[in-house]
Design goal:
Elements: H1 2-11, H2 21-40, H3 46-57, H4 69-89, H5 92-97, H6 99-124, H7 129-140, H8 147-152, H9 159-187, H10 192-223, H11 227-247, H12 252-262, H13 272-295, H14 306-334, H15 338-349, H16 353-364, E1 366-369, E2 375-377, H17 381-417, H18 421-425, E3 428-431, H19 438-448, E4 457-463, H20 471-489, E5 494-500, H21 504-515, E6 519-523, H22 536-545, E7 549-554, E8 564-568, H23 579-593, E9 596-601, H24 603-615, E10 620-624, H25 634-637, E11 642-647, H26 663-670, E12 675-680, H27 702-717
Parallel strand pairs: 3-4, 3-6, 4-5, 6-7, 8-9, 8-11, 9-10, 11-12
Antiparallel strand pairs: 1-2, 7-12
Helix pairs in contact: 2-3, 3-13, 4-12, 4-13, 6-7, 6-9, 6-14, 7-9, 7-16, 9-15, 9-16, 10-11, 10-12, 11-12, 13-20, 14-15, 14-17, 15-17, 16-17, 19-20, 21-22, 24-27
Length: 720
């Protein structure tokens, strides 16, 4: 037995660097775990902790691990993940609105480093023109190293972040184009065919990703609902886009970013899929990339001669100064705060991905040999080593600056939201009866709620109190457990409620009152349409007894595959006390899914909705629509991937229209192939819920009513 033990022990090799793949992987995982924990006590950002850890364990440190193919592979995945997340989390409405600002910033952050870098290369470092231009292109590009910090602090929706991310795509593309041109010139390959090939290949690549990827994504998400399959599909699309970018002659990071933009609307920010994407990236792939960057750092070269130190100091100073000037000019141009300037500077100052690509390409281009037979490189070894120091310094500095700016912005946004009771007190009750529609109802609940509210979902199952069947309670608990698992997938906590009652209507009504629910989400069973008695006795009984915002949902396809919502609103809807409250939920759908909202109503009602658009802009359009007798006209505008939302009224409501009685027939005959959502707002004639502060329009003239509405909207939505 002892001899067998020693034989096994003899197979273990602890010589440095480690070769055992299990030992290598486990050691990296423990570094990912403990490095941030230890360095956080010293107030060092997690990103810097991982880079420093990589430098310590790498080939130029204690040589614990080699930067082998596995580290490079996982690091490449992490880099592409950062760019993909940046495209995925960006607010497309703001991105389109701020596209000109992104272009301006992109030119600032490209032209300033190009100018200063070229001059520094020519007159300070005394390089050739081609070498100086290539060196400057390295300063112009940047990597969103600090983006995970921004994301963690919840300020990715800020305009400054949007502009910087958009500008990153512009400056990195231009910088990599300069790299391709300089390399071509060095090899004597620049001609008309080079430009024609580049333009054609880039156009084909961009068209494939931007137009074909969303179609493929929508088809896949509709056909396959398995969570693992969806995640693997998304990861595959990211790397396919990255490969297509490389095939087009540009850097893979541009492909990953464009894939994020293309799939943006198919992966809602509140969805379980988005939670999985962020979790895996932040837990594994991105830390691998940062450790890999740290492994490149060689401190020894700075003791071998002054040339490397001089080059490193000049490169770091020019890169930092030029990026700060670009951020400062953007601040002055767009009237940003100092915190927003810090965000821009922090995100754009870090040099890593494109910089490494450029310096390695330039280092490997040999222009000839000197008198001793040594190769003359386009970028010398001193530039290569100086680049490594520049990466360490800029990544460290950028992370601190970005963290500082993000902390200030997060504090400002939290202060603005302190008065918003809706986020803190919202409680969305979801009665659950059928296993087949649980997921769609929970997904709707997570979509209409505020993103920051993680404990607002309640699931209810009514067990008949007069039943002697013990299996009914077990079945109820299984349904509620399934609902909890689905909610947990999107990082939300769901409260499970079982009610014993002989009357389902009374049971739901009492639970609403006891838990002070603000919203009620109910489903239509897929096997049945709306009955001739409108919604059936159960739903009508609930509407008669519960004066809270009520949503009745019919699901045909997954909510993340909906491209736009057509919202039909009756005349005088703004005069109902619950108008602002259901509008907030619709707005959350637009914010959380990125889908376009198209409002159909009278001009007076649309004017109220435009006030919200001024405070929190999303993709919205307006269609004047006054005559509900022409309701079927809506079906002409409804496409296969659209959803219909109809705001209704109880019989005695101010916005009630007799044509609403015909709605069941319309929905059954003309809208069965689309998702639709029926909304019943809070209305007069009921006791107001204790936790709501509805807008009482009965005693207000039109002008006072409009002012009061703006006050309510400001409180509920909050200015961003």
């Amino acid at each position: 037995m002892n001899s067998g033990f020693f034989i096994l022990a003899a197979d273990l090799n602890f010589n440095l660097p480690w070769q055992n793949p299990v030992l290598i992987f486990s050691s990296i995982l423990f570094i990912i775990l403990f490095a941030p924990i230890l360095l956080n006590k010293l107030k060092i950002p997690q990103i810097i902790g991982l880079i420093i850890a990589g430098a310590v364990i790498g080939p130029y440190g204690i040589n614990l691990l080699q930067r082998d193919s596995s580290v490079v592979l996982f690091g490449t995945v992490g880099l592409l993940y950062i760019m993909f997340l940046a495209g995925l989390e960006i607010d497309l409405a703001d991105f389109k609105k701020n596209s000109k600002k992104s272009l301006i910033f992109g030119m600032y952050t490209f032209l300033i480093p190009m100018t200063l870098g070229t001059l520094a290369g020519l007159y300070v470092l005394e390089f050739s023109l081609n070498t100086s231009i290539l060196l400057a292109s390295m300063f112009a590009s940047h990597t969103l190293i600090a983006y995970p910090i921004i994301s963690k602090m919840g300020v990715t929706k800020n305009k400054a972040v949007n502009i910087t991310v958009g500008g990153t795509m512009i400056t990195d593309t231009l910088a990599l184009l300069v790299l391709a041109v300089i390399v071509g010139m060095s090899k004597g390959e620049i001609n008309s065919q080079f430009w024609i090939r580049l333009v054609i290949s880039f156009s084909i690549f961009a068209s494939l990703v931007w137009f074909v990827f969303p179609v493929l994504g929508r088809w896949f998400f509709t056909k396959f609902e398995d969570n693992i399959s969806q995640y693997i599909f998304v990861l595959g699309m990211v790397f396919l886009a990255a490969f297509l970018a490389e095939a087009a002659g540009i850097e893979a990071i541009i492909g990953a970013f464009l894939a994020g933009l293309a799939l943006n609307r198919l992966i809602p920010h509140t969805s379980a899929l988005m939670n999985r994407i962020e979790f895996v990236g932040n837990a594994l792939f991105i830390p691998f990339f940062l450790i890999g960057v740290g492994m490149l750092i060689n401190f020894r070269v700075f003791f071998e001669g002054w040339e490397t130190i001089l080059v490193a100091i000049v490169m770091t100073a020019v890169a930092t100064l030029s990026k700060f000037l670009a951020a400062w000019l953007s601040q002055k141009t767009f009237n940003f705060s100092s915190a927003q300037r810090d965000i821009i500077f922090g995100l754009s100052n870090a040099q890593a991905a494109a910089t490494l690509a450029a310096v390695l390409v330039g280092y490997n281009i040999i222009l000839g040999t000197d008198e001793t037979g040594e190769p003359i490189r386009l970028l010398s070894e001193s530039v290569l080593n100086g680049t490594i120091l520049m990466i360490l310094v800029t990544c460290t500095h950028a992370s601190f600056v970005a963290q500082k700016g993000a902390s200030v912005l997060a504090l400002e946004e939290n202060t603005e939201e302190e008065g918003t009771e809706e986020t803190k007190t919202e409680k969305i009750l979801i009665p659950i009866n059928y296993p087949e529609n649980i997921e769609e109802l929970i997904n709707l609940g997570t979509t209409i709620k505020a993103k920051k509210s993680k404990n607002s979902l309640l699931a209810l199952n009514i067990v008949p109190s007069d039943s002697q069947d013990a299996t009914k309670e077990k079945a109820a608990r299984k349904l509620l457990e399934k609902a909890s698992v689905i909610a947990a997938g999107s990082d939300n906590h769901l409260t499970e409620l079982i009610r014993y009652d002989s009357d389902i209507v009374n049971g739901i009504t009492n639970v609403v009152k006891e838990n002070k629910a603000t919203d009620l989400v109910m489903g239509l069973h897929k096997q049945h349409g709306i009955s001739d008695s409108f919604l059936g006795k159960l739903t009508e009984g609930i509407l008669k007894n519960c004066n809270i915002t009520t949503f009745i949902y019919k699901n045909v396809q997954p909510i993340n595959t909906i491209s736009q919502y057509l919202i039909v609103i009756p005349e005088n809807a703004e005069k109902e006390i619950g108008f602002a409250f259901w509008l907030l939920r619709i707005w959350n759908i637009g914010v959380n899914t990125g889908a376009k909202l198209v409002f159909y109503s009278t001009n007076d009602t649309l004017d109220y909705i435009r006030q919200v658009q001024k405070m929190q802009e999303i993709s919205v359009s307006y269609v004047p629509f006054a005559d509900w007798d022409d309701f079927l006209i809506i079906s002409r505008d409804l496409k296969s991937n659209d959803a219909l939302v109809v705001v209704l009224s109880r019989k005695n409501g101010k916005s009630f229209d007799p044509i609403m009685k015909k709605l069941p027939k319309y929905l059954n005959n003309y809208f069965q192939s689309n998702n639709y959502l029926l909304i019943y707002p809070m209305q007069e004639g009921f006791d107001h819920p204790e936790n709501s502060d509805p807008l009482d329009s009965t005693s207000l003239n039109p002008t006072d009513q409009f002012i009061s509405f703006k006050t309510t909207i400001s409180r509920l939505f909050g200015k961003k």
